[in-house]
Design a protein that fits this description.
The protein has 89 residues and is α+β, with helices and mostly antiparallel strands. It has one domain. It contains 2 helices and 6 strands; from the N terminus they run ββααββββ. The longest helix has 10 residues, at 26-35.
């Protein structure tokens, strides 16, 4: 699987990609999503941004956003909120 793939109207995001963004193990990302402590939102672009989507992931005070094209190619990644924690070890 590539990092982000189309699944009909939706997208499937590789847990490793989100894990890298939040500097967490992929298994922790999956558990946080199951528990509702890491959430996501998908927004379709309009006007000049038609054909692009913004996938946002929220965990605590942190947000990671991927702006992607129709094929799932990542155009931009942004972070906001508390600083990303340093990768352990």
């Amino acid at each position: 699987m590539s990092r982000i793939e189309r699944a009909g109207k939706d997208f499937v995001v590789d847990a490793d990609l989100v894990a890298e963004a939040f500097r967490l193990p992929a298994d922790t990302v999956r558990a946080l999503m199951r528990d509702g402590r890491l959430t996501s939102r998908c927004e379709a672009g309009e006007g000049e941004d038609a054909g692009r989507w913004r996938l946002s992931f929220y965990h605590g005070a942190r947000v990671c956003r991927f702006t992607i094209d129709h094929d799932g190619s990542i155009r931009r990644t942004t972070y906001s909120g508390s600083p990303r924690p340093e990768k352990a070890g």
